[in-house]
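> forwarded from #structure-qc
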């Protein structure tokens, strides 16, 4: 069993409209846009990152806004709900705020004894807020939400699978342990020190059809390791176990490896280094269009053709 994984690093999804996506996360949820860059494989598409002040691993929601992409069809083989941590007693504030902002799908609930508020993203994305006691992660406070109410970072992510057994075993190999079960949902948490984003819920839905990816779908979920040395240890262990893992890929703000899980979800293992301040001062994160070196020659074209985003 591995001990290098320290919780979630980021969750990456797809959207239809960059401006609408940016407005939802920065204005409605009060997160900070910490990077405005492009998809490495499709540079005419943004890659937008939203997080706390510094883009701390465990707080980072990222998006590929593909213009005119069809909406995804929810199903199995995907991350169904991305869950954020908020302070105890704040769900009433958030319920009112989201309703006033025109957010749909708002619904109170409880899971594993935790109060939660589910809601939809602009493309039907599945989100929830969970009240967490003593989450001491510092929130971003310049997004229109006071510190006492603001999102702290990820709480968890929930996967929908036709057969959860093999994926649950993989997570246990990656350092997670089963801590609870409710109906057809198993809760696993990373053992040892974590970054606060340490829970994965795995829901078994044997008769639900496979998801079709599109706007509102999670593209992949990334787990955090401290550095490249730890990442290489994880890569070797996964390959020794029989997983087909990509070579290490430089994503400018972290190094990444990817592999497909038995349940169909794309996993990434990303380093905490070098961070989002490698090419921008922390005070100005997410302001300028940052391009990977291999796409810098496209700057003039991209600045003219990418949809303008209002801050």
């Amino acid at each position: 069993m591995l001990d290098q994984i320290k919780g979630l690093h980021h969750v990456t999804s797809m959207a239809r409209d960059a401006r609408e996506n940016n407005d939802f996360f920065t204005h409605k949820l009060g997160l900070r846009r910490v990077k405005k860059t492009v998809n490495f494989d499709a540079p005419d598409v943004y890659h937008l990152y939203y997080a706390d002040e510094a883009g701390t691993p465990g707080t980072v929601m990222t998006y590929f806004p593909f213009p005119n992409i069809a909406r995804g069809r929810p199903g199995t083989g995907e991350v169904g709900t991305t869950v954020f941590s908020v302070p105890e007693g704040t769900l009433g504030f958030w319920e009112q705020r989201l309703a006033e902002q025109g957010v749909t799908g708002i619904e109170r609930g409880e899971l594993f004894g935790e109060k939660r508020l589910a809601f939809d993203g602009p493309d039907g994305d599945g989100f929830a807020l969970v009240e967490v006691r003593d989450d001491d992660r510092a929130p971003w406070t310049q997004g229109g939400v006071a510190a006492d109410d603001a999102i702290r970072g990820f709480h968890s992510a929930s996967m929908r699978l036709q057969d959860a057994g093999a994926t649950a075993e993989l997570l246990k190999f990656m350092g997670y342990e089963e801590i609870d079960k409710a109906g057809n949902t198993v809760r696993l948490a990373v053992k040892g020190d974590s970054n606060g984003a340490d829970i994965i819920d795995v829901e078994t839905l044997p008769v639900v059809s496979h998801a079709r990816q599109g706007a509102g779908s999670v593209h992949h979920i990334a787990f955090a390791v401290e550095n490249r040395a730890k990442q290489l240890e994880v890569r070797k262990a996964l390959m020794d176990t029989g997983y087909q893992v990509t070579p290490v890929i430089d994503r400018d703000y972290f190094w990444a490896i990817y592999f497909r899980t038995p349940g169909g979800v794309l996993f990434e293992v990303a380093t905490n280094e070098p961070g989002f301040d490698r090419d921008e001062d922390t005070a100005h994160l997410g302001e300028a269009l940052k391009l990977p070196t291999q796409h810098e020659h496209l700057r003039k074209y991209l600045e003219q053709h990418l949809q303008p985003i209002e801050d």
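QC bot note: The two ends are 44 Å apart (CA to CA). Helices lie at 18-28, 91-100, 165-173, 228-240, 299-305.
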